Amino acid sequence: MASEDRETFDTGVEVPFYSVHYQYGSTSKLNEVRDTSLRALFAKYGDILWLNGSHKYNVTNFIAELHDMLDCPSFSTFSDDMLDELIGKLRKRGNSNATINRKMAALSKLLRKAFKMGDVYSLPEFKRQKEKAGRIRFLDKDEENALFNEMRAHSDLYYRFCIFLVDTGARLSEGLNLRWGDMNSTRVTFWVTKSGRSRSVPLTHRAFEAIGRSSKRQPGPFCEIDQQRFRIAWHQAKETVGLGDDKDVVPHVLRHTCASRLVQGGIDIRRVQMWLGHQTLSMTMRYAHLASHDLDMCVPVLERAAAC
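RE: above sequence
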């Protein structure tokens, strides 16, 4: 091409800079990734990722809090710096590592879904914060009797629900979502669980009786219970029996009590994990120290060795 036929460009003209991210989906189609936010992603995927209940209520608050904490709430890529920013601010607010882990678990689940669907360009590296081994609070028999008697004075249904929870180790939401078709005379199956995995556990005699006294006109034995009202009645009962200052005596203590009794009764930790529906053994190992009677067999061995 002759030099006079070539186009010339004005180097003094400023060319605008564009930053556009693309991501390949499962169909190998190139998609543009536009700016979004945690609130927008939760509105889009919240109902898909979490079932209605207390856990979803907590997650809703977690995501809203994290959204408000970001200096730049709009993003197309969620970086490690953004993650560090959130963790640092949560620590300044006095959040424990355990609380931070719960909030980061919700964030990770949401972002992984967004990444899979092509809404964000990349993901940060989530690292679990080291948690302190806290004291596990459980009820002794006298505390159980006192609390349950107060709950019965308030409502026979609440009383029977407490019996069911302490003898099955079920979470509140698992008991409330129970339906008549989920049980028979010997065992009960929890389909709506925190982990998303169903599990079946045998029923004690009193747990079976507690279920049987519920009205069959309802979809399930405890579905007419309002969780908030139940918690209010529980708080009033613990105040009455002198446990009002013990912040660990919440309804979830019934699940801890069930687990503690299984371990203290000699049930191995793997079976306790299956009973509770824990995803990892490390969650169940919080109760392992209660199995100290297993160490008693070590004493004769040491005494024989010392006598030689």
